[in-house]
Amino acid sequence: MGTFESKLAEMGVTLPDAPAPAANYVPYVQVGDMLYVSGQISKDGDTLITGKLGDDMDTAQGAEAAKVCAIALLAQVKAACGGDLDRLKRVVKLTGFVNSTADYGEQPHVVNGASDFIGEALGETGKHSRSAVSAAALPFGVAVEIEGIFQIG
């Protein structure tokens, strides 16, 4: 077990198999040492985490949904690296989409669920740039979707 997966294990997290795409796209594209991972929705196992922030979900629930997205992102990175997550050199950028009402303004706090998790799990490698934006709706009614750009070796 590599360094990153050992840290995840200490945190009580085992990466699942990388989720299969839900439509006509690939889960990731590698260009040189850059890896572009498609948006990962808030889905824990077979259970979709659905809801709209500012309506039927609170910020803490949204942050937990964002963490689930981050776990799926790391699962995709591991798959792209042939099973060796330690090939990850840097989390470059995350873009988080939050299913939220027009007057909800805590999208950054929701996406912190992913950023905080990645920072704790990956340390310096996990420091990244980020966007957190509102969406009127997301696929399947999920609460959060996050895509990422990673540098791998």
Automatic annotation (TrEMBL):
Protein name as catalogued: RidA family protein
Pfam family, one: YjgF_endoribonc
Species per Swiss-Prot/TrEMBL record: Roseovarius bejariae
InterPro entries in alphabetical order: Endoribo_LPSP/chorism_mut-like, RutC-like_sf
Domain of life: Bacteria
Domain Endoribonuclease L-PSP/chorismate mutase-like: 5-140
CDD domains attached to this UniProt entry: YjgF_YER057c_UK114_like_1
